[in-house]
Specification:
This protein is an alpha/beta fold. It is built from 14 helices and 7 strands. Helix content is about 50%, strand content about 10%. The structure holds 1,4-dihydronicotinamide adenine dinucleotide and 1,3-dihydroxyacetonephosphate.
């Protein structure tokens, strides 16, 4: 059973067998899918929507796991509301948002952690196109936390026959993999929209990975994490699927549509649009080379055409494939 924004009544699953209580905040595509996944594992699940009638305080105070699947723009307001109500220190907070805060460039997990310093925080991220999971197709994901017991509790809560959940101890790397690949998914949509071929796509995704790693490691992530499900895995899924909203943005731009036209007809949120602005600002400040993201930025700002962006990437100064190739 999947609740959607257009059917805002909050549902409660498995009333008769209250194992552990999970409350999912945000009944958009991802929140409603995750609530349905947790239900498959026979847990007691509540899906809360700001458009529903259930008061927030009635669903968060006794939840063992509080999962936020709110789009980035709503994360800070949501944190303020939860903080004002208060939750027990034992509540595990899981964040499934893939974005960066415009003002601070913080990831959602950092925002949650600063507001709830004594709570275990877990990041959920992986190659997880909601529509496929809704259709019961097999998928895998990662629950990452510095608190191993919390990651295991979240793993147990969401794992089922069709949803395989791994844990890891690098929440920031796990979160940034899922966030930064949205920018590359826009570039990938452009690549396919311009029919540049398989070689171009392979080159784009392969060169995108070190770009993501450069940003990630500057922010404290482990480079290894980017070769896992939440990095390379999500890059492959999102950059090769018309189901991805970020990919759709790039594809539309390649067809000559304006960003405004694309966003007007887009179903749901394309976080990559905002993430690109935040990422490029951060890269400039830290002097991190991000050639692909910089071209996506120019494209979104209307400063170059898709064709010009491709030409600019191909015309870059020739260099060694790996920065440290001729060191020593
Ligand atoms: N749809 C997908 O396949 C996946 C999405 N994600 C991530 O999950 C997040 C949500 O994505 P979707 O569900 O697809 O987006 P969506 O646009 O379908 O839903 C966003 C949800 O956030 C809620 N929201 C926004 N501002 C709010 C506020 N101030 N207070 C309370 N609720 C607020 C909306 O009401 C809605 O329920 C994004 O960061 C996205 O990158 C992650 C993995 C898969
Ligand atoms: O993060 C996702 C898949 O893992 C969803 O991608 P989009 O937000 O581009 O639809």
């Amino acid at each position: 059973m999947v609740n959607t924004e257009s059917q805002p009544s909050n549902f409660t699953g498995n009333e008769a067998t209250p194992a552990k209580i999970t409350t999912v905040l945000g009944a958009g595509a991802w929140g409603s899918t995750l609530a349905a996944v947790a239900e498959r594992s026979d847990h007691h699940v509540r899906l809360w929507s700001r458009r529903g009638e259930t008061p927030l305080e009635s669903v968060i105070q006794d939840a063992e796991i509080l999962l936020s699947a709110i789009s980035m723009k709503g994360v800070k307001p949501m944190i303020d509301r939860v903080k004002a109500i208060g939750i027990p220190e034992s509540t595990i907070i899981v964040t499934a948002t893939k974005g960066l805060d415009t003002e601070t460039a913080y990831t959602p997990s950092r925002l949650w952690q600063e507001a709830f310093p004594d709570h275990p925080i877990v990041v959920l991220s992986g190659p997880n196109l909601a529509k496929e999971i809704q259709n019961n197709l097999p998928a895998a994901t990662v629950m990452a936390s510095e608190d191993e017991a919390a990651a295991e509790a979240a793993q147990e809560m969401f794992a089922c026959e069709t949803f395989r959940v791994y844990i890891n101890a690098d929440p920031i790397g796990t979160e940034l993999g899922g966030t930064l690949k949205n920018v590359i998914a826009i570039a990938s949509g452009v690549c396919d929209g311009l029919h540049l071929g398989t070689n171009a796509k392979a080159a784009l995704l392969t060169r995108a990975l070190p770009e993501m790693i450069r940003i990630g490691t500057t922010l404290g992530a482990s480079s290894e994490t980017f070769f896992g499900l939440s990095g390379l895995g999500d890059l492959l899924a999102t950059c090769d699927s018309p189901l991805s909203r970020n990919y759709q943005v790039g594809y539309g731009l390649a067809q000559g549509k304006t960003l405004e036209e694309i966003l007007e007809h887009l179903e749901g949120t394309a976080e990559g649009v905002n993430t690109t602005q935040v990422l490029v600002r951060l890269a400039r400040k830290e002097q991190i080379p991000v050639p692909i993201s910089a071209q996506v930025y120019r494209l979104l700002k209307g400063k170059s055409t898709p064709q010009q962006a491709v030409e600019a990437l191909m015309a870059r100064e020739l260099k060694a494939e790996f920065d440290d190739l001729f060191d020593d």
